[in-house]
Give the backbone structure.
Amino acid sequence: MLSFDSVHYPYASRRNVVYANKGMVATSQPLAAQAGLQVLQAGGNAIDAAIATAAALSVVEPSANGIGGDAFALVWYQGKLHGLNASGPAPRSLTLEKLSSQGLTEVPKYGPLPVTVPGTPAAWAALAERFGRLPLQTSMARAIELARDGFPVSPTIAFAWQQATKLFREQLKEAHFKSWFDTFAPERAPSAGEIWRSGAHADTLQAIADTKASSFYSGALAERIAACVQSAGGYLQVEDLAAYQVDWCEPISVNYRGYDVWEIPPNGHGLVALIALNILKGFDFTERDTVLTHHRQIEAIKLAFADGLAHIADPAHMRVSVADLLSSSYADERRKLIGARATHPLPGEPPQGGTVYLSTADGEGNMVSLIQSNYMGFGSGLVVPGTGIALHNRGNNFSMKAGHPNCVAPGKRPYHTIIPGFLTKDGKAIGPFGVMGGFMQPQGHVQMVMNSIDFGLNPQAALDAPRWEWLSAKHVNIERATPEHLFHGLAALGHELSWSNNRIVFGRGQIIWRNADGVLCGGTEPRTDGAIAAW
């Protein structure tokens, strides 16, 4: 069962669990958390705070997200959960045949070809219009100020920035990548504590705020974005941007030991976390740090990913329904495949029938789980000159296998890795949670849910606990802090393990729970520069 207790936990970090009752913001960078809190204290609600935090993160953590990326959100507003899918489609003129004719067998990681329509600015505008209390100019003011006046770069972000710069200098030699270096590393990447500013970024954010994002999709910014991509050899056109609309969707869920765990439906892969939990709820777990617990978790995730990678796509192109993949009968069949040793699972046949994350809550009961990303750090490596807009590379997740549900096609959204999570019980909000980090995200969700529900850890302890990440086949990456007996025990079961001291690869999460008295209890990620701003 969920716990708010702040003492007597085996997983201790330098942070204690944080309590508040009027409002809370948990995210991966202190200045962004403070931006959200300032909006709450200025009369905004949790949705306004989420917009403020997200806009600030696009400035202070450009190594993970930006204006030119996508966003998803789960919003608890006046007693109901709402889903927002603000991922963008491929250009209408992009086809499998055009890519194949260039000798490609997969969509590239960098350059113009993986660029899809960015959804983040539209997400901010849609959230403000439907649920917000304040205009975008107010919610985004602090982000604009941070970009124009500058801010000291925090340590984890500085490290990621420097690593990305090194990689890009080695790999991105074409002329169309010059604007990225001019914008983010004209001489070198900034060091921790060094002031970084971008007037162009501030101007773009101001234009988005002033026009409710319309200038990004049909104005001068749209023309500059399309021209940038086309001049580099890509296919994105002004018409693609002008046609873009966010998707308000019904969240999907499974009930896990009396709690409803919610995710955004495909094209996101939150479904992978739900498939795994649906399998795992058929087992009894009494202790966290046992070989059997970890073995079953890893095997369930492998089965879930086998199905997710085979079936998840733009929902208009899926041949298997979410309901079929989450059916009890299918979970029972998949659970039978978890035996005493590690396996290399294949997709089943169900019966037919580099990201930032934030959580916010206000004193009125509203709560937001929001995630946004450029993918692989800085994204495609393309920056629209003079705008600060780093374009994402989500198209890299398309398949180029003809007939695959996720095969690249005009106007189609790709398989997407960013997923916000939310927990409810008996129709009442418990709160938002998330773990950023590419294909680690569903795995992080499963571990956070089980840490909280099965093992009774409070939000901070749930985040502090060592993690694992399944990579492929029988390969599993284990965090160095994991007890050694688990490493040896899992290896004896056939898991091919590696230790890792790089804590960032295990995801960066945030959690806010609310109890029956309206008290908020928050935890923030020790693997990054995480912070909770509370009121």
